C-alpha cells in the first residue's frame, strides 16, 4: 500500500479504536493523530484504557474495531494486520528490560542488522547523544537507574523507529533525575523526527513533556489540546480536578444568576433550577487583607467576601497552603505565595477571582 509522507501527513493515526474485556469496553472509540517530532501524552487515572491503547498500537493487543495508520499506510484494521515486529515502532516501559548478559553496546545493537562496522557506528552515535559513550563496554548491573534509562532510550532509537510508544518510562526514577532524563529524551526524539505517544497518570509529567495532551477517562478521550489550553479551559469539573486541587462552590441558577456566599455569578443560557458547581483553584482564592477583621464590604467588581476560619496552615517550600472552614461548613483551600501561616481559628475574608472560575452543570 502506497503511503503519503507529505509534511501534513500524520506519522501515527488511530481511528475509532475499541477494545473490550469480559463485556466491558476498556477502550471506547479512541481516535488521535501525531505528527513527526510531536509528543502526545495519553493522560488519565489507572484503569482508564491508556496502556491498552498503547498495546494495540504496538500490536501486542488486537483491537475489536478501528484502524491504525503510519505515514498514511494501513497498519491494521478488522482484516489487515502488520505484525508487531513489522511496525517500525519503538517501545519504552517503566521496566527498562535490558539484557543482563549483553554489554551496553550489545543492548543498543540488539535488533540492528547490517555490517558490523555500520552497526557499531550507529551504536556509538546514539550513546554519544544520550551521554553514555564512556560506558559502551559496561554491563547493566554496573549502571545506575538513570544510566540504564539512557541505554534503554538508545536501544529503542537504534532501528530509527518512526513511532515511539512510552508507558510510564520515568516513574522508577527519583524526581530530580527524572526531570533531566525526560528533557534529554525529548530532545533526542524530536531531533529524530519521531512521533511519540507517552502514557502517564501524572499531570505534571504530561504538562512538561507534551505538545498535546489527550485526557482519558473510562476508556474515552474526554478532552484533547495543548497543555496550556487543556489546563485553562477544562471540559468539566473532573478534568479541572485532575490537574490540580480545586474548590467547589455549589449553587442553583435563577434568572441566569447563581447565588453563593461569594455573591452572584452570571450563568447565561442555563435553565432556571439547574444545579451548578463553581470551581476555583486554590491559587485563585484570594485573602482580602484590607477587610481582615472588619467584615465584608462588597463591590460590583469583586463580589462578596466570604468569612473563613483557618483550619490548618502549612508552608510547602515556595508557597503556603491554608485550609478554611466557611460559615456554611464547607471547606476551601488557598495557596499563598511565600510564607503565610495564620493560627488555627483566625478569621479572614476570602474572595474569588471571577476571571479564573469555571462553572459546570453538576454531575448526577
From TrEMBL:
Alphabetical list of PROSITE patterns matching this protein: ABC_TRANSPORTER_1 (PS00211), ABC_TRANSPORTER_2 (PS50893)
GO molecular function: ABC-type ferric iron transporter activity; ATP binding; ATP hydrolysis activity
Residue ranges annotated for the ABC transporter domain, each copy included: 12-243
UniProt keywords, alphabetically: ATP-binding, Cell inner membrane, Cell membrane, Ion transport, Iron, Iron transport, Membrane, Nucleotide-binding, Translocase, Transport
GO biological process, one term: quaternary ammonium group transport
Any one annotated GO CC term: ATP-binding cassette (ABC) transporter complex
InterPro entries xrefs: AAA+_ATPase, ABC_SmlMolc_Importer, ABC_transporter-like_ATP-bd, ABC_transporter-like_CS, ABC_transpr_FbpC, Mo/tungstate-bd_C_term_dom, P-loop_NTPase, Transp-assoc_OB_typ2
Pfam families in UniProt: ABC_tran, TOBE_2
SUPFAM superfamilies: MOP-like (SSF50331), P-loop containing nucleoside triphosphate hydrolases (SSF52540)
Transmembrane intervals: none
PANTHER family reported for this sequence: PUTRESCINE TRANSPORT ATP-BINDING PROTEIN POTG, SPERMIDINE/PUTRESCINE IMPORT ATP-BINDING PROTEIN POTA
Protein name in UniProt: ABC transporter ATP-binding protein
Source organism: Octadecabacter arcticus 238
